Amino acid sequence: MRSWHFKPLHAAVLSAVLLGGAVAVGGHVPLGSAQAQSNPVLVQGLPDFSPLVDAVGPSVVNIRTMEKVSSSGAGADFPGFPGMDPDMLEFFRRFGLPVPGLPRQQRPGPQGDEGEDQPSGVGSGFILSADGFIMTNAHVVDGASEVIVTLPDKREFKAKLIGADKRTDVAVVKIDAKGLPAVKIGDVNRLKVGEWVMAIGSPFGLENTVTAGIVSAKQRDTGDYLPFIQTDVAINPGNSGGPLINMRGEVVGINSQIYSRSGGFMGISFAIPMDEAIRVSDQLRATGKVSRGRIGVQIGPVNKEIAESLGLGSKASGAVVSAVEPDSPAAKAGVQPGDVITQFNGTKIDKVSDLPRLVGNTKPGSKAALTVFRRGKEQQLSIVVADVPADETQVAQAADSGPAANAKTLGLRVTELTAAQKKALDVSGGVRVAEATGPAARAGMREGDVILAIANTEVASVKDFEAALTRADQRKPVNVLVRRDEWAQYLLIRPQK
């Protein structure tokens, strides 16, 4: 084994370093030399965040939620968590935090009678306006029977939920107060990768906690409607809903998610861009809900090989139409399966996720210009954007019980097959996999698969799928007959232990 020996720094060199002199050591160019001066230092020192804390701190609030439980809180023993450290359970109990994965009826908290409000979570938020409008995450207030806002000066208010949008994870609540210090909203377009940013929030219920880091990436795709800001700012449970602040003291994002294998911070966190959040909050404040546009197409990505074969060049961009819903805006506009949508209202579609965001942000009922590439030529189509049906919103907000909960346990979300899709696949029934996560993903299922049968029961619709899933034993592996392209195969989904 090769060993390394480190010699003491020569006294003369040490003296020169301490006194700021220029000494060449080991052939390296001294910092004060002409060569070093020709390459100016790009970064000098570390930032002082204290002025930002003084400026923005008074606008950041703590949010506690209460929830009516259907049974008394759990006792000292927590089913499903026999090996959890009692001190950690006590930590969750003290701050009223939910134990990850524990059913709501068994969350640690004060004992109480059935139907009594119990602490259900802790989050953060920030003041949008002096008259008491506060922005936070939708998941912070989801299911809450009562929302309590604590200001930095320790005043507490019961807040009214103005509206919440689960798709973007943005919510607005209102407290009865005047003259509050509102935040300044920053321009997300000016935010640069590598720029210093800071977060203020209540991780684990510890109010007014400040963490800092840099912007790691922008336009990070992790959701249908949101290109997230990725940072390395330490974000933990309780930080959700708090502001991401630039060095000008402006809020540029809402801290919303982390990437973690442990449940704690692992160096990657995501924030909702404020331009998207403000667009949503304006609708919530005006109507209490968010309207989104739709055009009625199933789309997929365009890879390099497809782009070259179609004559689009070597750059993979656009969204290829795999199916068009009958009587949809796209069908009426003349969109056909196989079309590649390259622009929407003059905005280029660089990647497939751009199209749902652009369409979703378009006011329903308005006309839009669609550029499609069809058989070697570009065509311009005019399309009237429709509204997302209310029943889709209701399904998204349905309670976690019954067949929907069973499907969620397996990591499945399915939708009906359109007539065009059935014709293209030459099938009379089945359901399309809209999302496959957890056990379903581990079994090899993916978005776009068609389920023809589950638990040895043929399915012709979502209703049939839910009925078959209800009858299946959720404790045992479930067999699924899946159609993918021209092939059909059986997959075995093993439920989460």
Characterise this structure.
- The chain is of the alpha+beta class and 497 residues long.
- The chain folds into 4 domains: 1-45, no CATH class; 52-69 and 116-290, Thrombin, subunit H (Beta Barrel), CATH 2.40.10; 293-387, PDZ domain (Pdz3 Domain, Roll), CATH 2.30.42.10; 398-493, PDZ domain (Pdz3 Domain).
- Strands 1-2-3-6-5-4 form a 6-stranded antiparallel beta barrel. A 6-stranded antiparallel beta barrel has the order 8-9-10-13-12-11. Strands 15, 16, 17, 18, 19 and 20 form a 6-stranded antiparallel sheet that branches.
- β5 and β6 form a beta hairpin.
- The radius of gyration is 27 Å and the shape is globular.
- Mean pLDDT is 77; it is low at 1-31, 71-84, 93-97, 99-113 and 391-405.
Number of domains: 4
How are the strands ordered across the major sheet?
1-2-3-6-5-4
Mean of the pLDDT scores? 77
- Counting H and I runs of at least 4 residues, what is the number of helices? 14
How large is the radius of gyration?
27 Å
State the name of the first-level CATH class of the largest domain: Mainly Beta
The CATH topology of the largest domain corresponds to: Thrombin, subunit H
What would CATH call the architecture of the largest domain?
Beta Barrel
**Based on DSSP secondary structure assignment, what is the total number of beta strands?**
27
Low-confidence stretches at least 5 residues in length (pLDDT < 50)?
1-31, 71-84, 93-97, 99-113, 391-405
Structural class: alpha+beta
Residues in β-strands, percent: 25-35%
Main sheet, how many strands, which sense, barrel?
A: 6 strands, antiparallel, barrel
Overall geometric form: globular
Distance between the terminal alpha carbons, to the nearest Å?
A: 46 Å
Helix content: 10-25%
